[in-house]
User: Fold Glycosyltransferase involved in cell wall bisynthesis from Marinobacter daqiaonensis.
Amino acid sequence: MWTRYSVSIVGTVGVPGNYGGFETLAENLVRFRKEHDLDVELSVYCSSRAFESRPHEYLGAKLRFLPLNANGPQSIPYDVLSLLDAVRRRDDVIVLLGVSGALALPLVRLVSRARILTNIDGIEWKREKWRGLARMILRWSERVAVRWSHVVIADNSAIAEHVRERYRSGCEVIAYGGDHALAVEPVEDQSLDLPKEYALALCRIEPENNVSMILEAFSSMPERNLVFVGNWDKSDFGRDLRAHYHDHANIYMVDPIYDPGRLRWIRDGARAYIHGHSAGGTNPSLVEMMHFGIPVFAHACSFNRYTTEDQARYFESAAGLVAEVRGVDMTRLHEIGERMQEIAQRRYCWDQVGRAYFELVEAVCSKRWRIG
Assistant:
């Protein structure tokens, strides 16, 4: 079905993908190419600082290592150098994940014929953690990415609407998959003394994920257990929350879990999922949990409503979350869980995502796509 092209994936820590939405996306694009035996030469740029071993290939994809961190202040030079190296190697298509390196795109377009497909991620500059110069650079990078990419990809219809309204530009919508969360066997973690019944929250401990709101809600519901998994010790914000709520017997604040088997075990035990993200787009942890067929209580932002097709339960405050949790009967909870699973199986499977990306590669290379 697909002609032979050379494609580079830029903007991730690399593969194998151990953590992060873009890393999981890159991992599954590599797997899709191998499983479907596509006649595509695929390369992934990786941070050598994140891997102890640095093989030349992974599942048939070439790995190109750079001696910089993929996240933090070095993310911009890391992405820019990756882009320029892909240009030097004369790759046909560059899939840029995120806008960190987008400021180099005008130069790339000037000196290369490579087709650039950019997934702009969430509306990064709107996140609460960015201020001042950092926010200005991210906002500018988004604008440059939309202007100079051949195709802009959004993972959520709300982001596509943002692109159309702000930049008067078209945008492809390709979500994330979540079915990989069920692809591993559960591994019981006996070191975690968890209750028999609990709601689960899972996220980076940042203000925009409404961590404080969720903890406040469950602190007023001592009859309801909450297991909250996150990087509590990464910031003063997280450490302060842990100190404030650690005495609540119904709140279990668990350090981050990256092992897929242990994560599967803790998800299997959950009776409901609490999703506080209010920025970004189609959040990976949400679509992963939807595959488990349990009811979802999500922040009422447009991104989450699009992801769940307005079929979950929604909150905007601690009091609102309490009212939702206490106000839904068991029959309705079961129905919500079934609906979440149906949506996930219909929209958020990696085979669908991989097919959409590689069909887009074929379209831009065969000039069946109108080049911007």
